[in-house]
Amino acid sequence: MSGRLVVIGTGPGKPAQTTPEARAAIAAASDFFGYGPYLDRLELNDGQTRHASDNREELARAKAALTMAAQGRHVAVVSGGDAGVFAMAAAVCEAIEHGPEDWRALDLEIVPGLTAMLAVAARVGAPLGHDFCAISLSDNLKPWELIETRLAAVAGAGFVIALYNPISRARPWQLGRAFELLSGILPASTPVVFGRAAGRPDERMAIVPLNEARGEMADMATCVIIGSPETRLIERPGKSPLVYAPRSATGAAR
Amino acid sequence: MSGRLVVIGTGPGKPAQTTPEARAAIAAASDFFGYGPYLDRLELNDGQTRHASDNREELARAKAALTMAAQGRHVAVVSGGDAGVFAMAAAVCEAIEHGPEDWRALDLEIVPGLTAMLAVAARVGAPLGHDFCAISLSDNLKPWELIETRLAAVAGAGFVIALYNPISRARPWQLGRAFELLSGILPASTPVVFGRAAGRPDERMAIVPLNEARGEMADMATCVIIGSPETRLIERPGKSPLVYAPRSATGAAR
Fold first, then answer.
1. Is residue A150 within 8 angstroms of chain B, CB to CB?
2. How far is Cα B233 from Cα B217, in angstroms, rounded to an integer?
3. Could you tell me which residue, B228 or B2, shows the higher pLDDT?
4. For residue A201, what are the contacts with CB-CB under 8 A and spacing of at least 6?
5. DSSP per-residue codes, B34-89
6. Which residues does residue A75 pair with via DSSP β-bridges, in sequence order?
7. Domains and CATH numbers, chain B
8. ipTM more than 0.90?
9. Which of B102, B128, B163, B250 to probe by mutation at the A interface, max A CB count within 10 Å?
10. Average pLDDT of the segment spanning B192-218
């Protein structure tokens, strides 16, 4: 079997933040699987074929890509951000584990990319400068109770929290509920960053204290970063403030 | 004041993983501050000046860079990986907060980069495919007890854990102690990834079950990823196994 599968993270959407490695992997592949809007960002040539699918078809998409790779094609599965963070690399691994034996023999490469929280953090200072975690707020594939347990555990232990998939049409109330829960644990003044489309023309960054944070401030393209009790905000004359997590931590603010 | 400061993450060390944005920021700056080995990776021209310093001089280095930027120079502070993850962006923000007022007026830009855990994860599958956290194991700037509290909180709540700064000559026992603590919470078979120098010529990846993980398996260039109870390992004929966190989570394995 000479087929191969490469899972590519293209970064947050600013072309200069796509690595040369990802760019080369895109140039080399023949068939592209991914969510339509991510595929639309690629500049493909006539010999390269798009197989776009809906956002929520991850496992089916992974299987289709593996099937085509097993037929000898050079297949790329494309994610925005990093392929390994709440994205297609896990779906491909899951499909391999439960799929036909020969998928395990396929040549598989994963090309990492800049994930959204890093791009957002860079736009506002260094909110991920100390211990932090990343949580998907989607309860499509895990119970909401587990998400609440995790939020409480990390907020109580002083982690900065980056929320992926904060809101969608089908999940309108979860982010508001998360802020409510966190307000019972963290100071009202804890900085919350709403980082939308970092580095893209439609970028929008907002920083509000936790007691003013509302679910409606985010959309599907937003990564939300919630500070720890030790997170600092620096006002600057004529510039947007800086938010950062100090390199030292006492845990005393808990 | 016409000076400017740019804090640049150059990625894990594989040249093709440095973003074009970071490359352009390097080309544009006149003076470079950073840990010697990171500066050594840059290809500077005759008009560009290196100001190398030791690994543990972060705040002093940030102040020196800000002082020079305030004098009108175009200064770059360089980190390996991402500048915002256990790196120089937080030190620069800290220096600005506590420094002279005019540092707040400086033109400051932070250029994100691929952080080590993403590059390591891509080499072994998708171990960060679901909720995860990043913890610095260094107790230079926080009490060891706080690190133990955090490890227990996230392991108990089912997060995958990426450990930065796992070991050094001055901190020889902490990683072994962390494995011991986690062994009381997580299954003995939990996959542990030792990802050293991902993408560089001296790369070394190892995957062992938690009950076989030892501190000596890591060095300063290693990022350690410890699975959750739901993390899966896929054996492959003639290839290294894949490790991944399933996209769905029940929390039941806790």
1. yes
2. 20
3. B228
4. none
5. EEHHHHHTS---TT-EEEEE-TT-HHHHHHHHHHHHHTT-EEEEEESB-TTSSSHH
6. A5, A31
7. 4-114 (3.40.1010.10), 117-244 (3.30.950.10)
8. yes
9. B128
10. 97
